[in-house]
Structures are given as structure tokens and as C-alpha cells.
Amino acid sequence: MTGDVRAGGAKNSALPLMFACLLTDEPCRLSGVPDVADIRTAVRLLEKLGARVESPAAGEFLIDCSAVDQWEAPYELVRTMRASFLVLGPLLARFGRARVSAPGGCAIGSRPVDMHIAAISRLGAEIVQDHGYVEALSDGLRGGHVILPMPSVGATENALMAASLAAGATRIENAAREPEIVDLAEALAGMGAQISGAGSSLIEIEGVGRLTGMNREVVADRIVAGTYLIAGAISGGDVLVEGARSEHLGSLLEALEAAGCRLSEEKGAVRLAMDGPPRAVSVATAPYPGFPTDLQAQFMALMCLADGTSNIDERIFENRFMHVQELVRMGASIRSAGRRAIVTGQRALSGAPVMATDLRASVCLLLAGLAAEGTTEVLRVYHLDRGYEHIEAKLAALGADVRREKM
Ligand code: UD1
Predict the structure, then answer these.
(1) Could you give the angle at the alpha carbon of 114 between the alpha carbons of 132 and 145, nearest 5°?
(2) Distance from Cα 206 to the centre of ligand 1, integer Å
């Protein structure tokens, strides 16, 4: 594949920003919001709570939460998208109450919300869990000392939003350091919040009495950008990924370079060129700035065609190897034991019908299909639409032979 492709705004940044609008009764404007299914779920949830949401142009949203008069995020929306749980902090902080369905399990593991709940309790909320819901009540949040057992992205975001309107100072220790956290903290600061340390493991917040509206462009999606870079590598191509920020992609770029890809940085973009098969490179996922779990499946697809054997360790989620058996059906040689997959590269993969199980697994199968001999049919492709915008059109523009069949 050759050519230019653009990674749009990050879904994982846009979602917390949309929910942060609940913190204010002033209108907010977001731009660069990707056109993906999870964003449509977030709009439905905000509207259900009483917000007015308009999209006057592609990627642009006007969100007005002045008339919010509901505090419940129902099971059907939280089950569809776990990030819906992020309304807990903002609703509680602004209205003193929130009732949010517990997300339950998902394809990649049990994914509890205990850290979100513990963090919110530290800010003085009373939490009751019954009938599958988490209910939080408070007659005014107070700043507190939150120590996360691990740097959970969602728990950091919930705590950050709630603490922005709590009385007094909050410290979040062992905070997640993802660029999406920095994006949220900057947006909150633009609304009048007082936050320091976002992007490090210690975030300090001095609560304020009220927050104003915001006007913000969502940061580019590093996971989508990384996916297109891997697409370039797996097809032995030359692609320029616009919107890719090398400072957000350090561990992936290091692994791709070790695999033999030629990388160069151009203004606001990263170019990848590849000739010949990749070399085997082992990676282990870790919280940012480590190798992202959201790129593990895509990188494994690349390693299926590498010269040599690599170990892929998944250290964030307990069950994120659902793509392994599907790759094996395409002729890959992979042994998985617990949280490690041992991949021995093959000269070629062979196209086959395969089943997508989650968002990143589905794109991994698409990438494997691009490189495989013959036709690959990816079923349950709706998982892809949760996080990738117009992906078949973008891949086709790079020269891939890919089309969507309406079922
Ligand atoms: C976010 C991303 C997701 C990414 C993940 C890890 C969004 C909308 N989603 O998800 O794409 O894969 O970060 O980079 O931004 N955990 C607990 N208890 C909790 C919270 C988390 O045990 O209360 C565990 C999870 O099960 C998981 C690990 O902590 O094993 C990391 O999860 P977390 O960082 O919270 O991920 P999310 O915010 O859900």
C-alpha cells in the first residue's frame, strides 16, 4: 500500500471530553470528533440525561448540558460502551448524585470498576451498589488523596473530573499518563479547573466552585495512526500517516524500527517505508508510555509474517488474545499460554473467513487479510465501526482491495 492517510481525532479522548461537558451549564464546542459508533453511543447517553447535542458540521459537536435533569446511565448504554461509566464523576460533582450501571464483563476480560468507585469514595461520596447499578450520592464533594493500585485510564479520568468541582485539594497518585489524560486535563483547565501534573504519575487538583464552557479540538488518535503504520509495514508499502505524533507513539515506533521499518517524521505526520519481510520483535504491553494494549493485536498480525519468533505479552487485560485462534485459521503459527503468545513468522498467510471479537481484534484480522494470499472475509465487522472511521475507504485509497458487504 502506498499513499497518504489521515488519523482523525481520538475516540478515547473525545469520549471523556464529551462527558466533561456535564460539569458545566455553559455550552461547549468540540471539533475533530471521529465519526464512529462509540461517539454515537455517547450522544445517546448525553441526550438521555437531558443534554442538547447538535452536530453542525462533520466532526463538530455543540453540547449544552444546562437542562440535564436525569442522573442515570442505563445498562443498555453502559453495556454497549464501557466508557459510559465516565459520567459517574461529572454527574456526581455537579448534581450530587449519579446512578450508573456496572459495565459487566466484556470480550477482553472482566474489567471491573472498583478503582473508579474507590477513587470517587475518597472524594467523600457515599456509594451504594445494588441491582447491577452503582449509585453515588454526596452533599458536596471534598478533595481527597486517591492512590490508584494501577494506573487505570478511566479511573484517573473519573477522579480528575470529579475533583475539579470538589472543595479543596485532591492528589491522584499512580495516575495514568496517557496523552488522552493530558487532553482531558487541558480541556478542564480551559473550563477553569486548576490542575497540575497531568501526564505524570502525580496529578494535583485544586477544586473550583464552577466550570465554564469549552471550545476544544480533540487530539489525534495515536491508536488509529499506529494501526495505519502497521498496515504500511504488513503490506511492504510506503505510507504517510497524517496526524501521527511520534511523541505519542514512542514504543510502537521503536518496535517497528527494530522490525526493519524505515521511519521518518514529517510535519504533523510519520512516514513508514518497508521493503522485505519484518524481523521478529518481542513486545510486552504496559501502561503509557509502554507498548499500548490497543496495538497488541495489530502488531501480532505483523509478527505472523516476520522472520523469526517473537513473544507478545499482554499485561493489561487478562483475555486479550481472542484474535490468536482466528490468525491461526489463516495459517499463522502462534502458541499462547496465559498472557504470552509465541509467534513464529511464516512466509505467507492464507485468506479465510474469520470472526471479529472486539474492536482491535477486528482490525488485526483486516490487516492480516490485506497481507494474506486469497480472500479474507471478516465477520462481525461492526466491532470495527466502534473505533475506526471510514476504514475501508481509507485502506482502499492506499491501494488495498477491501470492501464492505451489507449483510
Ligand atoms: C482505556 C481505553 C482502552 C484501553 C485501556 C488501556 C478508553 C475509552 N478506553 O480503557 O481503549 O485499552 O484504557 O490502555 O479510553 N481495572 C480494574 N479496576 C478498575 C479499572 C480498571 O481492575 O476500576 C483494570 C482493567 O480491568 C484492566 C486495567 O485495569 O485490566 C486497565 O484498565 P483501564 O486503564 O481502566 O482501561 P479503560 O479506562 O477501561
Answers:
(1) 135
(2) 25
Report CA-CA distances (Å) from 279 to 167, 263, 275, 343: 54, 15, 11, 12
Distance 287 CA to ligand 1 centre (A): 10
Given the candidates 1.10.10.10, 3.65.10.10, 3.40.50.1950, 3.40.50.1970, the CATH classification of the domain at 222-397 is: 3.65.10.10
- pLDDT tens-place string over residues 386-396: 999 999 999 99
Q: How confident is the model at residue 104 (pLDDT cuts 50, 70, 90)?
A: low
Q: Which of 152, 184, 222, 285 to mutate to test the pocket of ligand 1 (most atoms within 8 A of CB)?
A: 152
Report the pLDDT averaged over residues 243-264.
97
Which pLDDT band, with edges at 50, 70 and 90, does 318 fall under? confident
- CATH 3.30.930.10 for domain 9-217: no
φ, ψ for residue 18, nearest 5 deg: -65, -40
Ligand 1: distance of its center to the CA of 355 in Å? 24
Ligand 1, atom 11: closest residue by C-alpha? 294
Residue pLDDT, tens place only, 52-85:
999 999 999 999 999 999 999 999 999 989 999 9
Q: Which entry of 106, 261, 304, 364 is annotated as an active-site residue?
A: 106
Our answer to whether residue 65 is catalytic in this structure is: no
Pocket of ligand 1 (CB under 6 A): 12, 15, 82-83, 109, 111-116, 150, 152-155, 176, 180, 293-294, 316-317
What global pTM score does this model have? Answer: 0.96
Q: Is the dihedral of CA 310, 313, 319, 320 positive or negative?
A: negative
Instruction: Give the residue range(s) of CATH 3.65.10.10 domains in the chain.
Output: 9-217, 222-397
